[in-house]
Amino acid sequence: MGVKLSALLTENFRNEVRISFRSRGGAAFGAGEVAREIGGGGHERAAGATIKGKTLNQCVAEIQELILKKNHECVSINQ
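^ that's the sequence the OP posted. Answer follows.
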């Protein structure tokens, strides 16, 4: 199976959290789809977003919740 979607989050000195998403072919949903959900953009295999006004930990929790929700939606559709 392996990793189908990854996210790298970094917090900078301007109190922004930058998120870089990467996905592989065959994933139930792509990096671009996840990034667009939080106001970012990009392509299906490489995308990103910048979040202002939230801590790194808040963003990690938000991304985890979003990915779990999207994964659940895909599983429900495929059953």
